[in-house]
Amino acid sequence: MKIATYNVNGVNGRLPVLLRWLEQSRPDIVCLQELKAPQEKFPEGPIADAGYEAIWHGQKSWNGVAILSRAGTPVETRRGLPGDPDPSHSRYIEAAVNGLIVGGLYLPNGNPKPGPKFDYKLAWFDALIDHAADLIASGAPVILAGDYNVMPTDRDVYKPERWLDDALFAPEVRAAYARLLAQGWTDALRSLHPDETIYTFWDYFRNAFARNAGLRIDHLLLSPALAPRLKRAEVDRDVRSWEKTSDHAPVWVELED
């Protein structure tokens, strides 16, 4: 089974890119972020034509998350994160799919730092950690996939010294990610590529993609019940080079059935 996460950066404006990637990569389950579309504007028809059933949590202009599946109907188990400090933001959706619990998330950016946006990011992270603990305690096979807006270590960011004052690389945020992993979650991509330079995001500016000046901020975390099934974890880096593409690339794992 192949499970992916992709910050599509506007599901309608980049629909041709999304459909091209779905056809090329054929993931079984996909978590999307930054739909930037209200609930009624999600392109359910074209995605169904591509072979995927979907649930989504939309929001006009900003945020928005979805779960797509061609491996069985996604049965929604949660819409919104328990304890979300601002539930008006569409940042979390969860479903049971083919024997798995799939949580799709879009963690706040948090800039500028310091300030209320950074405080919101830390509070949201705390709520995620609390919910993640409950998921692990359930004993179910769970994957938490999405745009976490955190570079966990120096090797996850191009020229880390330039990011010391950014909310995506703040010590408090990296510490929160470490607390999450300490519950028993496996960072799939890093666990299989412990020493490689791997990025999932390249800014549109300053020729960042061509220079490989990127960040690793899109993560797939596997619960202890699921981690033993991990076979592969990769980034579809070439998608970032396509015309009118997102500034993120899709990231995916392959699990033993």
From TrEMBL:
Superkingdom as given in the UniProt entry: Bacteria
Cofactor note: Probably binds two magnesium or manganese ions per subunit.
Site (Interaction with DNA substrate): H248
Positions annotated to bind Mg(2+): N7, E34, D147, N149, D247, H248
GO biological process, alphabetically ordered: DNA repair
Residues annotated as site: Transition state stabilizer: N149
Cofactor annotation: Mn(2+); Mg(2+)
Site (Important for catalytic activity) location in chain: D218
PROSITE patterns recorded: AP_NUCLEASE_F1_1 (PS00726), AP_NUCLEASE_F1_3 (PS00728), AP_NUCLEASE_F1_4 (PS51435)
Annotated Gene3D superfamilies: Endonuclease/exonuclease/phosphatase (3.60.10.10)
Active site: Y106, D147, H248
InterPro entries (UniProt xref): AP_endonuc_1, AP_endonuclease_F1_BS, AP_endonuclease_F1_CS, Endo/exonu/phosph_ase_sf, Endo/exonuclease/phosphatase, ExoIII-like
Keywords from the named record: Hydrolase, Magnesium, Manganese, Metal-binding
Endonuclease/exonuclease/phosphatase domain residues: 4-248
Keyword DNA-binding listed: no
GO molecular function, one term: DNA binding
Homology family: Belongs to the DNA repair enzymes AP/ExoA family.
Name of the molecule in the record: Exodeoxyribonuclease III
Species whose genome carries this gene: Sphingomonas changbaiensis NBRC 104936
